[in-house]
Amino acid sequence: MNQDKRLYPTSFNPLFIRTSRPLPKEVAILGAGTIGPDIGYYLKSALPQIKLLLVDVVDAPLKKAEKRLAEYTHKAMEKRKIKENQAKAILENIVYTMDYGLIKDCDLVIEAATENIPLKQRIFSRVEELVGPDTIITSNTSSIPADRIFSKMKNPRRATITHFFAPAWRSLPVEVITWPGASQETVEYLFWFFAQTGKVPLITDNAICFMLDRIFDNWCNEAAYLLQDATASQIDKVAEEMVFAGPFYVLNMANGNPIIIETNTLQMEEGPHYKPASILASVEKWVTQRPGSKVEVPKDAMAIIRDRLLGILFSQSFDIIDRGIGTKEDLNYGCQIALGFRKGPFDIMNELGEAEVSRIMEKFQNERPGFPMPKASLATYQDFKRFLLVDDVDGVKVITLRRPQAMNAISDDINNEILSVLKENTDKPEVKGFVITGYGTRAFSAGADIGKFPQTLGNFGAAEQYAKDCAEVQLFMDRMQKPVVAVINGMALGGGFEIALRCHGMVATKNAFFQFPEITLGILPGIGGCVVPYRKWPQGAKLFHEMICLARPINAKEALEIGMVSKLVDDIPDLIKAAVEEVKNLQGKIQRIPDGKVEIPEFAIPDPPVAGKQALSKEAVSITVKTIKAGAAASSFSEALGIGYRGSAEIACTEAAKEGITAFLEKRRPEFKK
Ligand code: NAD
Q1: What torsion do the CA atoms of 520, 526, 529, 531 make, to the nearest 10 degrees?
Q2: Which pLDDT band, with edges at 50, 70 and 90, does 2 fall under?
Q3: Per-residue confidence (pLDDT) for residue 632, from 0 to 100
Q4: Cα angle: 129, vertex 133, 137; to 5 degrees
Q5: Is the CB of 65 under 6 A from ligand 1?
Q6: Is ligand 1 within 6 A of the CB of residue 40?
Q7: Which of 464, 512, 508 lies closest to 487, judged by CA?
Q8: Cβ–ligand 1 contact at 114 (below 6 Å)
Q9: Does the reported pTM lie above 0.90?
């Protein structure tokens, strides 16, 4: 495991931080230009009750900001993401002002003014005179190291950089910069605060441009140099293999040319090779095509562009890791969620293989001398988990599924990573056991990706095999001598719930809930979901019938009543503590899932079967009921599991499953015929 303790001395999961400082009540954002109002919209959406002050030195941006926030809420209502009363609460209690004096009671001040060192220094001197001694002060600078901006402050210990990405109201990551002048408490509070309000904070070192902008700025700058060989739309087209939108298209959207000049000039302190391309200063808008448009690129030009773009991407990635600016996990993930890369840089390297990466880097070094090259073997940059954070708490490995953009949905890759953490540690004497939880405040896991399931539709053998393949983590847990406890920090649905079910213990937050939505897609939970709950908690059988056959959700209290969950706690650090205690209680006392027949009560399925407003497929429900009954009647647990896999395969061969999966992929409600 390579996550860097220097950047994350307390924990990798931000919500494990115990902070004595509450959420802010009053926040000021200084600068109402491009990004300031977007940061404001994120804050008011996450914490509608706060008072927000948007401060600028010019009136026009404030007026525009007010209009923009009204438009955002309007759009969100149109898309049914928020209700009218929520929109009202977001827009209420926002002060658009040029009067700095109004910020005096703020607990948090975020500066998002023009990128200029003397200006920012002046702002912070002024802010310090106005606010109380405990106010946390941050800058959203894209590139300037913290010591330079905060150097004139009397008390920089409460100050650091919090770097957002456009569009800041939606983009998940925020880089929180750690630097010697700030207290650990300040950095950790912000780390916790952003996760608590729905963001993905990434702690990075105090290098020029921090972590992700070193990738973005140099990627764009390299693209500008490539204009000697091709047009902007040709370069964008080649880049689209790696990113959802090419560099010139993005620069146009963000009016980004001046910022690349500024940030790359700053990076020239590290060497002349970072020099911004002169063409960036003379062009205002690039001639580009919408992503996905057809653009002809001659083969030789394509090879030149591709190699150079990959060269700069890899060079910067190696450098970031070699200098400890960020962790491999954060860099690989951040490039995808902040910069729109289809895959992380280390995933691209992995796919290309060592020989091809070496070829690209040698060529890049010849064409662009001075840029950093890898300082370790290529294999060492691959040695990390893409989707998991792993913390050590009191001898227990605490695994966090970090995929909040998909509510921590389980994929085949996540399954493999969980399995490898369990396998890597299960025989280590110093490891007492494991805890599994989900990133953020909303979900343990919202289910499983549809994965290869559509390819198995109509093919009994393939569907049965796929169900078995997906069950490896569960089967491994069944045999483990060390306990695994699930911490349910929100929703636990479908395939995610099927992992929690197989853990040896479960604790949850009071707002947690559990559901098997599979039947609404004409399928059933095939990784043990139809058989495990009845064997582990036979007293909950009636509820399980409704859950599996009618997609009824159950809340944390109901889960506690049937004994599925052993403890409800709302405070996440306390919950982790409870889970770690549970791991210790379960030492040598893991209860194996029982063999033998299980008595289950009769089913009362309404005719026609419905889940809320969704009409269900009678055929799918009847296969599900049959599977549950046969699973309960099986004389061994392993026979019951086999029945579950075959039930999943049988249902995969129905019209209902075909319609359900097609509707899911087409984002519409399914219409079942029988
Ligand atoms: P911008 O030029 O669009 O807006 C800056 C605003 O700051 C202007 O409205 C200006 O009037 C105001 N301003 C100037 N002096 C001020 C002062 N003393 N007090 C209050 N307001 C003042 O710039 P932007 O793109 O919004 O960027 C703001 C900061 O955020 C910069 O440091 C930038 O590097 C950083 N940043 C921007 C983005 C982005 O996508 N735009 C992304 C990450 C970081």
Answers
A1: 120
A2: low
A3: 97
A4: 75
A5: no
A6: no
A7: 508
A8: yes
A9: yes
